[in-house]
Amino acid sequence: MLLPAVVFCLVGASSAGSAAQPVLTERDAIVGTFLERREGFWRRIAAAGPFDSLTSRELFAYALALSEARKHPDRLPTLLEIAERMQDRDPGSPARGNFWWTFGHGKVTDHNAVEFCIHDALLMWLRHRQWMPPPSAEQLRRILEHAVEGCLRHRVPVDYTNIAILNAGNLILLGEVLGDQQTAHEGARRLEAVLWWTWQFGTHEYCSPTYYATNLEGLKLVCQYAQSPSARRQAEALLRLLWTDIAVNWFAPAGRLAGPHSRSYDYLRGHGALDGHLMLAEWLNPAPTPLTDLLHAAMIDWRPPEDLQRLCKEQLPRTVRQSWGIAPVQSRTHVLFPDVTLGCAAASYPGARQDLPLTIDLPGNRQLVRCYFIADGRQDPYGIKRLATGAAGHQKALHLAPFWAAVQDGPDALALCIYRPEDLDDPELIDVQSHLVLRRPDQAWLDGKALDTTPQQQSQDLRRIAVAVGKPLVLRYGTAAVGITVLWARAEDGAESQIALIDDRNAAGAWRLTIEHRSGQKKTEPGMALWVRIGSGLAEQKQFHDWRCDVERALSGRRYTVNVAADSISLAVRGNQQWLRCSARRPWGKGGKVELWPPPSRAVLELDGKDIGRPLLAAVEPICDYRGPSCEKPLQLPPCGGRFEAEQALLFPAMQVGQDSSASAGRYVWQPAETAATSVP
Fold first, then answer.
1. Region 442-452 average pLDDT
2. For residues 539 and 517, what is the distance between their CA atoms, to the nearest angstrom?
3. Number of structural domains the chain divides into
4. Are 568 and 467 found together in one domain?
5. How far apart are CA 192 and CA 190, in angstroms?
6. Containing H/E element for 344?
7. Is residue 624 a part of any domain in this protein?
8. Are 478 and 339 a contacting pair, CB within 8 Å?
9. Helices marked H in 112-228 — which ranges?
10. 452 and 356, same structural domain?
11. Fewest CB atoms less than 10 Å from the CB: which of 118, 203, 548, 654?
């Protein structure tokens, strides 16, 4: 089946350039170009065997491409023999059935390897086993049989979204192709767990330009090839939710998945493996795209409904809110106008240290930078200094993971960031800085005075303009505007932080508003608070002037409050529509109370006040048959508290289980008021 007649540009997996791009209009051309560019990969293996940097993922991707092209079947025995060598088959190994990430590792260092490899191996088996030479088909079958144990032993948390989806789909298909009903049933159980969790709490790895591609590929595999009608319907529902999520957060004027990201490998521009899927769907114009990303995007045809593309282009302005976790503060808001978007996450994304919790997106070429907040400990505001991480040595540009709380209402966002001692316990730490990275504006004002926005030349010195707490910085981008005010900034010695607007002549042409928290004496926890407001449709000079003056009056008129005490911080600003409030108490993010107004949304995916996400999942079994309590109708308790019975309970941090013979099942759950994690006024 041919793909849509769209032109594609491909680059090598490690290439950053776009030399002599071929014109591609169908899957065959994509596969053919992949093989042409990877011929050197094969020659290296054929000449000297496997090399230390050889990854199991690229081994299976190349074998899949050969099978898709129906070329060089004589190469498959060598490739699959290496794959068998890289599969852990030690009977006593806890990683039995999994794969080495690289040949040089000689052992399993990343348990996700089995999911990526078997996804490709299943496509080879399902689509090409009749074409493969019988010995190669037997090799592949052995790999699949051993992988069953690898996938079963890989107990993926249900909120590790991309790997949970891959794992469930792999088990379903492994069980079906091998005639193993127990394995297929376990895969179905795990997929159902993803469905239930998402219906209750949203997509945890929210708006990731990298991992949304993995989600799509895992779900499309189930939709296309699973024998189980129930599994196909569940995967279809999750696919529709995912594409709807992409659509409402898609900012067509920038060609970008906009707003806050949970996990990003490209802070400056927000590009990722999702781009290949967007090009195939004709949402994104052709651009240089890594070969492997586009190959995987092209394997299975599943086009999103056309009305979603119309929605993302035509329904502006719009407000998107979505939950992404169990805690009430695990929520995200994104407001999109025709010429600017503003988004913030109410809490930081745990663990990954790759999130962008506050973002501003602007129209224009995709190579232009977006605006984002980053907590930086390595003097790397642009995320370009990658380091080997984890046992597998994956190259990542990780930032710090401080306590973060933020609230948004329309064009206004209010954010609080505090660096706890444990956040700064990092062997790579060389500094403590809060950056708001910015696209170079057309015009700029600081405290009412115009600034020179002429680009710096490479030969010029770094340009640094001091910024004081409470002084507004206003930036103009075409018909859009951004107002930024640092409301509070504290260094490690307790003194007010130095703040500067910096043009460091970086290749991307970005500016940055940098808050310096590092000091010789460490007396307290450093932190900062920001107020950001955006303006839209300011085509006339008078419109922009009036908007800028209103931002400046809001500060001079003290339409904000900042109260900093030993154990708490509270912020309030008079937004364009209402007061925004953000307060937190110690221990920051560890059970200390957080208050946000407006309250975070608990919708799976909310568009302009309506949850459009939860109904997509509620329409399929087993959710459609569920008759228990619904999170859409929360229990209303009186101010003094109350008691109620529940057959099942979901325990949050600081909740306690007690024994009471008069209670149902002899137990009860309670939480002391002073340990409440989140409170909504």
1. 97
2. 38
3. 2
4. yes
5. 5
6. strand 341-345
7. no
8. yes
9. 113-128, 134-153, 161-178, 181-201, 211-225
10. yes
11. 654
Q: What are phi and psi of 263, to 5 degrees?
A: -145, 120
Return all residues near 219 (Cβ < 8 A) that are at least 6 apart. Answer: 165, 169, 235, 236, 238, 239, 242
Domain edge (last residue) among 602, 619, 653: 602
Residue 650: pLDDT band (50, 70, 90) is low
Return the amino acid letter for 464: R
Say whether both 430 and 480 belong to one domain: yes
- 547 and 441, same domain (yes or no): yes
Distance separating the N- and C-terminal Cα atoms of the chain: 55
Q: Does the residue 587 lie in any domain?
A: yes
633 within some domain: no
Name the one residue in this structure whose structure tokens are 């806050």. 260
Check whether residue 364 and residue 440 sit in a common domain.
yes
Average pLDDT, the chain: 92
Both 323 and 452 in one domain: the answer is yes
The verdict on residue 655 lying in a domain is: yes
129-184 pLDDT, tens digit each: 999 999 999 999 999 999 999 999 999 999 999 999 999 999 999 999 999 999 99
**Which range of residues forms the domain containing residue 478?**
316-602
Q: Give 455-486 pLDDT, tens digit per residue.
A: 877 667 789 999 999 999 999 999 999 999 99
In this structure, the answer to whether residues 346 and 449 fall within a common structural domain is: yes
Contact 530, 484 (CB under 8 A): yes
In this prediction, residue 645 carries a pLDDT of 73
Q: Return d(Cα 474, Cα 483) in angstroms, integer.
A: 4
Whether 439 and 499 share a structural domain? yes
Domain boundary among 574, 602, 630: 602
Could you read off the pLDDT of 244-301 as tens digits, one per residue? 999 999 999 999 999 999 999 999 999 999 999 999 999 998 777 888 999 999 999 8
Q: Which tokens sit at 393? A: 């040595």
Tokens representing 554?
């809001």
Please tell me which residue, 8 or 453, carries the higher pLDDT value: 453
